[in-house]
Amino acid sequence: MKIALITGANKGIGFETAKQLAQLGYFVYVGSRDKTRGLEAISKLKDTGISNVELIEIDVTDINSIKQAKQELETKIEVLDVLVNNAAIGGGSDQGFSTGKMENLRNVFETNFFGAVQTTQQFIPLLQKSKGPVIVNVSSELGSLTVHSSTLNPNYAIYDTYSSSKTALNAFTVMLANELRDANFKINSVSPGYTATDLNQHRGTQTVEQGAKFIVKYATLGIDGPTGGFFREEEIPW
Q: Considering the domain boundaries, does residue 190 fall inside one?
């Protein structure tokens, strides 16, 4: 049985990704920074008949929490096959670079970028023991510089802080994939699309079931799958 860890998996797309991967036969560690909410998520999954899941308490903004989660997993497993860096925050209002507060920019990057990097660094040793290690960085079309440079949609500017954190995450994807190109890793950025979650006050136009399927697709890549790409239904321009 392959083993997956998903950060920020107690709700939204992360929760649905955990559900779909577990239904495919993966043993899924549901990452949650809040133990109570994480246990509630596990209970919901088990109520649907899914038993191959377990909570792992992890706050991606806290290196000590990440290290503790790693140590806990090392007592349970010898290998990790899939890491899904899903934990993220939206950044709230006033995200324009000409007016937005630096504190908000730093907070968003702390979770959406630095959190993913330091989580990945800690779990690479367990991933390296897999025959086909996979890392999925959950991104967004809003992270595409091509999209931002070509759109006249004023709504895009509302999310500049969030968007730039996903652009940075995409850079991490490309560079890490290149660094580990000879180690059989499959590392990709994946956008679930505009999905109705707490992140956007449930204004998204598609369901979590629809959004999670793209993440699951790239979390379950075989040895011939792509690496260092940016995908949804099709490849997204950087």
A: yes
Q: Which residues of 205-232 are buried (b: 16+ CB within 10 A; e: fewer)?
A: eeebebbbbbbbbbbbbeeeeebbbbbb
Q: Are β-strands 3-6 and 82-85 bridged in parallel, bridged antiparallel, or unpaired?
A: parallel
pTM, to two decimals: 0.94
Active site members: 162, 166
Walk along the chain (238 residues) and give the pLDDT tens digit of each residue.
Answer: 999 999 999 999 999 999 999 999 999 999 999 999 999 999 999 999 999 999 999 999 999 999 999 999 999 999 999 999 999 999 887 888 888 899 999 999 999 999 999 999 999 999 999 999 999 999 999 999 998 888 777 667 778 999 999 999 999 999 999 999 999 999 999 999 765 465 655 555 577 788 899 999 999 999 899 999 999 988 999 9
Q: Find the CATH number of the domain harbouring 104.
A: 3.40.50.720
Domain containing 184 equals 3-231
Q: Report if residue 236 sits inside a domain.
A: no
DSSP 31-97: EESSHHHHHHHHHHHHHTT--SEEEEE--TT-HHHHHHHHHHHHTT-S---EEEE-------S---T
As for how many domains the chain has, the answer is 1
